[in-house]
Inverse folding.
């Protein structure tokens, strides 16, 4: 499994390095703005950093999906499927790669945000920053307060629900490649299937009652998302093992 | 050792392999022969466990092909299948990581004999160089079965001699080699058994020495008889 995981990381290395390089550039612009007292540069850099965070997290899942699709539908799939590994291991490595990449990316962008915030806090004062954020959230009519446990719960929810979305897309793609291959309109059916599954899972996750703390709600929803991600993994691997030809 | 029973594979309405029952034994080099689209590659892919049959089954040492058989069956596809980022060294390392029977020293030795440098990126190689590298990778495994699909494709005469020698070195009493090629004369110098396939159906399996002694014809002659005139004499 470790070797499979190693090659899954290698396959997705290039776009990740591009994202890292862009983030380093944006961070350099932020630091330049901070130390040179150029608020415009700092503001633009913050916008880019927020954008890169969102794109970066999304990219982790999308890259895993693209690689799986390529492994099943191009000759490069021989490299993977001729090795003495079961589809459960092969897909497991892909899901793990996606999950670990999401966690690492989440931790990286969170750490960067904390460091940058710390710099700003030193200049503006802690309470002023919290006030600004909480006012923003009140304006958006949410009852979420900014504090470390809440932020961690939100990150946990984002990572697990995105992992669940990606594994749902894995299932739709495998059904397309293994069962519908060569049939007209299979991309449409795949996309439709993905939408239906995602909608159903979203509905089930939203059934968590809005009681208790906000952290508890996010954690329950994260657990349900993780459970669905596991279910999607087993169903997908089973279909691959039984029906997939490369 | 490697058997298929009533093996069939369909792609929509087209039947690529049609009820092929075939038994291949160790100690032989089989030439799988047939025109384009006769089902040779599809049969090999099913035997390698890469493709699922529509019906029938392939077994290796009595067990359906799968994870365990992939440890002992070395398959070389005719199409290039390497990751774009790989160098020749990376490909060797990949095989070493996944196949316990892969010998890195044998691989390096074969690369030297085939004038290939490890640092070269695979995407920059000519088709002939890729073909040589694929042979080096596959034959650096100490497998029980080697299945080489079109090993001489796009390879010049001198390199072909080197590949032929390398293939013959891999042949042993306990090993089975199966090669497909359009270069029938080339195959005659290597193989001792011929498997003729047409339109997905197995026509016959012949011992080449017996073919020469009893029928007085070469493998190429027999090929012409079967595929040239459309009927078996």
């Amino acid at each position: 499994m470790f070797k499979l995981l190693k090659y899954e990381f290698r396959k997705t290395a290039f776009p990740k390095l591009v994202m890292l390089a862009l983030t380093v550039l944006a961070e350099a612009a932020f630091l330049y703005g901070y130390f040179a007292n150029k608020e415009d540069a700092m503001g633009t850099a913050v916008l880019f950093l927020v954008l890169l965070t969102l794109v970066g997290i999304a990219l982790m899942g999308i890259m895993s999906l693209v690689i799986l699709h390529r492994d099943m539908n191009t000759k490069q799939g021989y490299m993977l499927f001729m090795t003495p590994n079961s589809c459960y291991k092969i897909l497991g490595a892909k899901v793990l790669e996606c999950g670990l990449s999401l966690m690492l990316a989440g931790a990286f962008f969170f750490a960067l945000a904390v460091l940058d915030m710390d710099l700003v806090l030193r200049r503006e004062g802690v309470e002023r920053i919290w006030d600004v954020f909480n006012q923003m959230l009140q304006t958006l009519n949410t009852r979420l307060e900014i504090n470390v446990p809440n932020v961690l719960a939100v990150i946990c929810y984002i990572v697990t629900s995105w992992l669940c979305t990606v594994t749902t897309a894995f299932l739709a793609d495998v059904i397309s490649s293994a069962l519908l291959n060569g049939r007209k309109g299979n991309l449409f059916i795949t996309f439709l299937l993905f939408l239906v599954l995602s909608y159903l899972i979203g509905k089930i996750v939203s059934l968590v009652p809005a009681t208790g703390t906000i952290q508890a709600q996010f954690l329950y929803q994260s657990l349900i998302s993780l459970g669905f991600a596991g279910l999607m993994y087993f169903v997908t691997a089973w279909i691959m093992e039984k029906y997939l030809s490369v | 050792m490697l058997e298929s029973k009533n093996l069939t594979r369909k792609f929509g309405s087209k039947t690529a392999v049609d009820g092929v029952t075939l038994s291949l034994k160790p100690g032989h080099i089989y030439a799988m022969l047939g025109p384009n689209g006769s089902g040779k590659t599809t049969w090999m892919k099913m035997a390698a466990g890469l493709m699922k049959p529509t019906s029938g089954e392939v077994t290796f040492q009595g067990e359906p092909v799968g994870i365990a058989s992939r440890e002992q069956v070395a398959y070389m596809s005719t199409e290039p299948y390497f990751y774009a980022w790989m160098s020749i060294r990376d490909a060797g390392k990949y095989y070493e990581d996944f196949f316990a029977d892969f010998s890195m020293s044998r691989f390096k030795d074969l690369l030297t004999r085939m004038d290939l440098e490890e640092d070269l990126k695979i995407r920059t190689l000519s088709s002939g160089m890729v073909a040589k590298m694929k042979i080096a990778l596959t034959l650096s495994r100490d497998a029980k079965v080697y299945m080489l699909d079109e090993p001489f494709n796009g390879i010049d005469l001198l390199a072909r001699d080197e590949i032929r020698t390398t293939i013959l070195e891999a042949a042993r009493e306990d090993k089975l080699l199966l090669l497909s090629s359009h270069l029938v004369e080339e195959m005659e110098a290597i193989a001792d058994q011929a498997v003729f396939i047409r339109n997905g159906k197995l026509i016959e399996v012949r011992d080449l020495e017996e073919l020469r002694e009893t029928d007085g014809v070469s493998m190429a002659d027999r090929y012409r008889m079967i595929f040239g005139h459309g009927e078996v004499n």
Notes: The mean pLDDT of chain A is 84. The CA atoms of residues 110 and 154 of chain A lie 11 Å apart. Chain A touches chain B at residues 3, 6-7, 10-11, 13-14, 75-79, 81-86, 182, 242-246 (CB under 8 Å).
